[in-house]
Fold each of these.
Amino acid sequence: MDILVYGTINSIILALMSLGFTLVYSISRLPNFAHGALYIATGYTVWMLLNSLELSYPLAILIGILGTAASGALIYRFALIRVRGMEISEVIASYAIGLAIIEGLRWGGLRGSTFTLPSFMSGSITFFDVSIDYQRLIIMVTGFAVFVMLYLFTRFTKTGLAFRGIAQDERASMMLGIDSDFTAILSLAIGSGLAGLSAVILLPLGNIVVETGYNVLIFSIAVSIIGGLGSWSGVVVASFIIGFAQILTEVFLSSHYQMVVALLAIIVTLLIKPSGIMGKQKELEERV
Amino acid sequence: MNNKIIKSFLRIFILFSVALLFVMCKSAKTEIVIGSPLATAFLYGWDAEKGIKLAVEEINTAGGVSVGGKKIPFKVEVIDTRDLEMNVPVNDALMGMEKLILEKKADFIVGGPIRSEAALAAMDLLSKHKKISILTTGALTPAYTKKVSENYDKYKYCFRITSHVGVMANEFMMLFEDIKKGHGFNNVYIMVQDVEHARKGGEYMKKLLTDKGWNVIDTKIYPTGASDFSVGLNDAKNKGANILFLWMDMPESSILLKQWSGMKLKALPMGFVNAAEQPGFWKATEGKGEFLLVNLVNGGNAPSNITPWTMKFVEAYKKKYGLEPEGYGTSSSYMAIYTLKAAIEKAGSLDTDAVIKELENIDLMGVYGKISFDKKSHQVISSLDPEKGAVTSIIQWQKGKRVQIFPPKTAEGKVLLPPWM
């Protein structure tokens, strides 16, 4: 039972971490390598708002997420827009921005293991003899809610439909009056906002350390490659594959092979289906 | 004619004298440079840096180090080796240390490298440059001083003023036996981090526990950066563990304690847990780390009354930095500077061989007991009695405070169990 419960929680955590990265790529074809940095920067922002400015927790969270969303939009507007279309330059530019954020946080003295965000609710329940804390239950509910809301947003709102249009065929969408750059700015803002949201609900489980930024980026890339770059449903499938594989590895093999499992999954996916489980990109080339 | 010769001679003499004076001034030692290779973004790095700088400030305020009748101040040069960061190669730490020696002209090395692998690799560099080094933080492997005893002539420059895994494990065993007597516990579940010192520490503890008749249920090894320990904790719960033995230096270990508390696991957590050493741990875990027993490696890294100097050091640290000494590396780094000062003063020079000889003969009552080194291995001599050697410190988090509970001679409280046990 604990495999089922913690496998599900682990999978939802991975999905939440990677969703913003995949959303940005699926809409604007931009690999946002600053994703992990934005994630951890949100954690520190909320911590500072709570502890230095002594704002209320909900307000600090709201400002943190909106601030990260605005940062994502600004990153596109002032940096990535200049290299758009040049794939290697996009990777280098976004990674450089991420590196600057992470190392900037470290340089600014945000180091050590005493930066933490409070849990939304303390305590735990026992479910079929498996103890689960309330924060993890909140993560499960939030993860489910985020996916439902994104589904509704992309199907029943004008902006969401524009997102899908750009994702499917950018030129055709532009002919119909959809502004590609504006959509990209919005996608970066929403993708970064999702990184921020995942940070504020996941970080209360532990503490805020700058190195987490790199881990989040690695897992986001792993999930996106396995699921299929740009595929939202792929994110869910890949998260569950990696999430359960990690838990099964811990139970039946050893916990220190967890990262190996994630990397092995990438290699196997690239060998068998380079476009990923649900990926459409390159599918035709693969068939040929 | 004669006047002309005398004048020329005088000119040459004055010129020569000025040049000689310039050379003499240039070569006269105006400061003793301490090079400190430390991973400054991590607790064991920044607290060591603070300890070193506090001691240097105190010594310099008092006039400096007396070398052959002349007072010379210390100067500290710190370099960030980043050797505790994931994926940073050992070579980076070595390059940092070489920079301290060649560019910063360090006379002595005090501090790291911190990661055992880097510290061991650095020994050859110290030998090559004939630089005395006092290892004060990180590296807990017994191999460090074993290398000195096996090849003294090559590695005689390396000293270690902190404890090591061998000593710590034996002291943990004494505590285990006390707990067994007091509470009848017999089942241990080991959780360690996937790094050299932790794996070795876990293996060694397993052997010692098994030899003493304890039932070691399982050993889980977690990769650095692991953020979920629920499966292991549930396993420990299902298999009836009484004690959770931890050996981790990653910040994420505080997650483990939060999960332990959330589950109300009936197993007392104890071990070497980096995240739980700092005074901020209580707030960071919202008090969920209460009852955790932590080894701070050396006394004085938390308030206690081991020697008269201990609280003097704690108060000076609080006054300068606004908080209590934070963890492993603080008191030992502070004491390394005072030990070096005493050795230089006794040697009366900065000559490497003379200072090595005086370090080998040092006998100084310090912050965590008597400081003296084993002449063959250059390892600080440990003891359970501060009058006889350097004492370790095992504390338990009780009501927001780090209470010294081991060794018995310096204990200021008893081991408490969580209410759900």
Amino acid sequence: MLESRNITKKFGSKIAVDQVTLKIEPGYIYAMLGPNGSGKTTWMKMAAGLVKPTSGEMFFDGEPLSVESRRHIAYMSTEPYFYAWMTVGDVGRYYKDFFEDFSPARFSDLLRRMELTEDLKTKSLSSGMMAKLKIAVTMARDARVIMLDEPLNGIDLLAREDITRSITEAAGEDKAILVSSHLVDELETISDYAIFIKNGHLIEVDNIEESRAEAGKSIVDRYREIYGHGGQEW
Amino acid sequence: MFKLLKYEFRKTWYTKAILLVLTLIAQAAFLIGVFFDKDETLGLSVATLVMLATFGIMVIGLVSLIVFHQDLNTKQSYMLFMTPNSSYKILGAKALENGLSVFLSGVFFALLGLADISILVAHEGDLMAVVDMFRSLIEQLQSYLVFDAKNIITVFFAGLSNWLMTLSAAFLAIVIAATFLAGKKFSGVVSFLLFLLLIWGLEKVIGFIPDMSTLFMDMVLTAIASFVLMVVLYLVTGWIMDKKLSV
């Protein structure tokens, strides 16, 4: 469905993503894990078409990523990105105007669950409220690939439960959901696969159930092995 | 394209609203000056209206460039580049919005000017004196220019084409700063110098057009040349955005 082949992104002399080959298949929820600066966000931005790779290529349904693939890929960035003049309602109308798969009814439902109202100005939202709005507008799309970059940042415990619930609700056979987060244990309960990235390199992709059943390791254990002191060097 | 245009208008609406409010205040002052015979207020309001008509259009152009810069260099760029619209379409919507805004502002100020002259004439009651003044002015100018609707429209469109060509050169300079010069020191200064260089080069190219016998032919050729150069700049800018731009 979504695939990167030997994709590399350099910012000046810094290599953010290095020769990453990764396949995202429909029907699964993927947890993308790694510390700050490991390359998760850059990979997601390349998949969303926002950042151009230095080398390698990104594919959607076997075709190079194009304007057309943006119709099927929803991306929620970790930074706020709405226009300052917008209200919460304007954000919904904007998405409705540009994305055929956007559901205003689902957006309203998510807003209600997140305790947001349409008349609120985006520039006056707290960081937690902004995070909730980004989640609501992204999850209101019926996109085939949904990528959420740090969706649980700055969100209180109860809202986090709402968000993880909406992620599992959105999952389906024809959809792939990719979530990056530092809150590894919370992702473990909802994800099928864990993607470990370190210093721009793809370390491994683990099937969480198999890993637990065969090696007796949770993704928290594996995270400690890879990123903890004495972890694998790259 | 219509949806992109709608949001481009929305992004620049505040500036246009401020210009409109200032124009309405100046217009109110003009009417007070006319109907209450306050010459000082009348003079000041006319000067303000002329200034708003001249600089207002320039401000609209500058705001369009600032919005484009923000759309490439801040996180709000995601709002545009996440949508299923090509770089050519996004750029086209921006150029079209600016062209339409400048065109409509020009028409608005021209109509307002005509209305104000009519009000002045009707109130002063000396219609024939004002008509004679305009006739004499036009007769003087006609010794080397032919003033008719055809020429006025051609001059207007040549000016609009030239404006859009200048705007396209500015778009190209901004895109180069956001791509090839991204993260480099003095990228803003380099991009401004590049813009000046582009304008100098474009004027040189237009300078190659031979002088024609009539104003009409001069303006038609200038409009065509500006339009062709604008299209070239648009294609180059769109291609760079498509292939190189990371937001």
